[in-house]
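Case study.
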Amino acid sequence: MNIIVKNISKTFGTFKALDNINFELPQNQLIALLGPSGSGKTTLLRIMAGLEEPDVDVTIKTNNHHQQVSFNGINILNQPPGKRQIGFVFQHFALFRHMSVFDNIAFGLQVKPKKLRPSKDEIKKKVNELLQLIKLENMSNRYPSTLSGGQRQRVALARALAIEPQILLLDEPFGSLDAKVRTEMRRWLRNLHDALKITGILVTHDQEEALEVADTVIIMNQGKIEQIGTPNQVFHSPASEFVMRFLGEVNVFQERIMVRPHELGIHLSPDPDPVNTTNSLISARITKILTAGPFVKIELLDNNEQLIKVHMSHEEYRSSNYKPNANVYVSVSCNLQNSNSNSSYH
Amino acid sequence: MVKKFKEFSAIPGFSLTLGISLMYLCLLVFLPLAALTIKASEIGIDGFIQEVLDARVLTSFKLTFGCSLLAAIINTIFGTIVAWFLVRIRIPLLIKKFLDSIIDLPLALPTAVSGMALTTLYTESGWIGKFLKDTFNMKVAFTPLGIVVAMIFIGIPFVVRTVGPVLSSIEDELEEAALSLGANRWQIFIKIIAPTIFPSVITGFTLAFARALGEYGTVIFIAGNMPMKTEIAALLIYTKLEQFNFVSATAIAMTMLLFSFILLLIINLFQSWVSKRAMGTQGDS
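After joint prediction, the assembly is written out as follows.
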């Protein structure tokens, strides 16, 4: 009962969008495909949905099992999109403008062949259930143009769920929503997934979204998978410099040691406490202090005019007396010293 | 929803464009029409009705409206197919532009040229005319069928040019969504594409129909112009003018104008209703 993707490559002209993608993950998870634009994550999703065909490797064509996209042990790579039992949700919703919310959600049921099509009453019951699920019960007669962005995306999701897919593919589903709606939708999607236990793959370029919502994160870069792991694993034990840089801000010392801003401390004197003495302190000058936000961001320049970013709690900031232009000393926080090999990539 | 005559708008030039639009319409459309009405009113209502109910005039009306309708319907069907081909099928740009220019040609061609060309083709000795005569024993030139052919020729660009842009503006995502929901090609066309392009198809139909109603040059070459048989209204008006029967000519023209206007108005109202449905903007609450 796994999702298996094996030997999938895709070339557009001379551009290698996907370079031999392989992974196997358990079902009923919410998986995030995370990467910068052009990393191939959407292409991979579209190949899984059958909206794009992978490159055919002539040398391995004879072996059926060599190249595959499988759910539940069934290779769906050669099936047309409509037969794959996949719910696809588009970034720009792709709702049918000329159809009411009801008709949009019912579409997948109404286009089924006569023998398989549910009766009118069954369709109505099913759509009403979905409307309840997306909390738009009173809007079944509305048209997409009269809905807000968040509502539209929920209708698109209900439409995809109507055909009872075995897997839900979401292509930057919240990308065109504003920040506040996006966080609400994120939480809503997570709750929905917990309630329905459906396998979902979510494409996003927003690391915060991926880390917050997913069970497993697949980080992609330039058509290749950089790392697969839980949000904790990828954030705290990044497998490559790219992952480290992509998942948050980093400071680079001596061109190879990477430390996250919240792992650094600032001291007013060069000899703050005995524990830290083994650690070399970097003398630097504070250039900017940003206090508006959940934590305080301090920017400093070291003697080589290199930028150092430090994040600390408001509490810590208030207890000290940091001023712009003050000369201070930066060190790796003592409580993170021991786990340093974990938290930074060398 | 009640809208004020002039709401605040960030788009400048409301007064200026309103003034120019009204003056333009007055000088170029209303004024000539008013002159026509005044001229026609000289004979009074009874005289007017008598002129219009003349058998020859009635036949020409039936012929004109009937042929125009038929030509517009045929153009709507085939024009949509041509637009589909030009937009959807991947062909080299050069060939596409070449085809595009051919579609536009009927707009630019002097009507006498197209009329003569069509007549040459469709007479019993012409390429197509001979073929139709030999295989189906069908006569096209100098029959109402010839009139329809001429009207199809001049109307085709209107349908292709109105449907094409709308067809190319349909997002791929809509079809992909329908595809992944299990719809087949035919269902996608009927349920997604057709409702979206329908308003533009009607607009194309209206334009092709209106163009056919007013066509004179192309038709008179191929029609043969036999009174009570293949004489269109526009030609009858011209004949009356040649006989210095101005009042009769304006009466026919007035009737023609009135019916054309009513028909176009109805189609346009229908079009805007359909358009609202296609955009999903009806029933806003």
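Observations recorded in class. Residues 334-346 of chain A have pLDDT under 50 and may be disordered. Chain A touches chain B at residues 49-51, 80-84, 86-88, 90, 92, 94, 96-100, 107-108, 111-112, 141-146, 156, 159-160, 162-163 (CB under 8 Å). We will return to this complex in the next lecture.
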